Structure formats: C-alpha cells, structure tokens
Amino acid sequence: MNPSPNLDGLSPQRRASMLAAAGEIRECYRVLEKAGINLVGEVLRGQGEFVELEHYPRDDVLDRETQAQYYYHTHRDGELEHGHFHLFLRAGGMPPDCRPLDYPQATDTWPAGDDALAHLVAISMDAWGYPIGFFCTNRWVTAEAWYPAEQTIAMLDRFAIDHAFPNWAVNRWLTAMLQLFRPQVEALIRQRDAVVAEWQASAPGADVFEDRNLEITGYLPIDVQALTLALEAAAGQ
C-alpha cells in the first residue's frame, strides 16, 4: 500500500480538509514542544508505572457527546514502536444505519447494544512521542463488535475528542490525524476486510475473528511532515 496517496486523485474538498488537519497537527506539536512535553508523555502523566497491556489513561478517554473513545498501551515487541493508540467509536455515536456483522459461527460473545463499539484504527508511536504508522487488527485484539468496512469508514468523520482530558492538544491531534490520513485509513480498513475474508475462505468452518494467528491485518508507515509538504506544494503554498 502506498503511504503517499495520489493527491491529484482526491477532490478539492478532501485535499482542503487534509491540509487543515495538517495545520492543526502542526499547532499541536508547537504547543507541546514549547512546554517540553510530548503526546505519549501527556497520556502517561500521573498514571504510575507503565505496565504492558494496561490502558492509559486508566479507564480510557471517552467523549460522551460524540461517543469517541481511545486508549494507549503497549504489547508488541519492536525496536521502533513504543506503544500505540487504539481509536474507537461507540454505538451511540455511529451513523443510524450501522449494524454489526451477522456472524453465526462466532465462538466469543461480541459486545452488543450501547456497548457495541467499533475499532477504527490504531496509531503506532515511537519512543519520542511521534507517530510512525497506522494499522488495523482482527476482532479479538480489541474485543469489538465487527462492522463491515464501508460502515466503519462512514464512522471516521464521527470521531472527535472535544475536551481537555488528559490533554487538549493530544485529543485535537488524534482527531486531526484521522482527517490528515483519511485516504490511507480508508485503504487500511478495506484491506482489513479483504484479509479477513481470505482467511475465512481458507477455513470456512472456523471463527476467523478469534484466530490468534491473525492479529494485524495491515500496517502502513506514515510521515506527517512529508504528507504536509506535499499538500502544501499541491495547494501552491
């Protein structure tokens, strides 16, 4: 998957939205760096010892108005990644026609009703508190309800954390990251469903969503500065 989308293939409205998000991200970095702090450090601040698999902040971050939710944690070995953000939307914030996939062969109970949250995407972070990639996961990783790709994509515009806990700049940054990298995130979500379908076809009677051999359905390295410069050049700035 190409980490740099063909900007010529995007609508003027989409390019403008991405460029505005790039400006928002730049501003978030400015105010954090001015104080000598970073995104990950703010999420972990005051949380005690950083323990593998624990959610940070404790009990997650939820905007009760938009029903957007996220947490930060670590559980994967790697020289580059410090940890990652998991971004969700809860059922109360979804477009009205969104319904979890009907999957009779499920061997685990999926969350239902108001708890039927959807995992949108994860953002991988380096040890300095900057993003290095996006990825999508299988259902068992996040214990979500599974929504088809196009419904999940329709949820992306609904993700917004519009309050100051644990840090306003962090919340604004996460919201803007989904807007700046919208084409890439859409591609990852569609790839997610394609990978799951391929695995299911190879084992028709199995519950693919609980297969521990399928964890990451797709990973895409990213470069915020490179995409921002490309957008600015295309806009003639």
Considering the chains and any ligands shown, give keywords for the structure.
237 residues, alpha+beta, 6 strands, 18% strand, globular, DUF6969 domain-containing protein, DUF6969
Topology, number of strands: 6
Task: Report the uncertain regions.
Answer: none
Strand content: 15-25%
- Specify the helix fraction band: 25-40%
Q: How do you describe this structure in short?
A:
InterPro entries: DUF6969 (IPR054242). The chain has 237 residues and is of the alpha+beta class.
Describe the structure.
This protein has one domain (11-229). The chain has 237 residues and is α+β, with helices and mostly antiparallel strands. Helix content is 36%, strand content 18%. Strands 1-2-3-4-5-6 form a 6-stranded antiparallel sheet. Helix 1 packs antiparallel against helix 5 and helix 4 runs antiparallel to helix 6. The longest helix has 23 residues, at 12-34. InterPro entries: DUF6969 (IPR054242).
Question: Could you give the topology of this structure?
Answer:
Elements: H1 12-34, H2 39-44, E1 56-63, E2 68-73, E3 83-89, E4 118-125, E5 131-137, H3 139-142, H4 149-155, H5 168-180, H6 182-202, E6 216-221, H7 224-234
Antiparallel strand pairs: 1-2, 2-3, 3-4, 4-5, 5-6
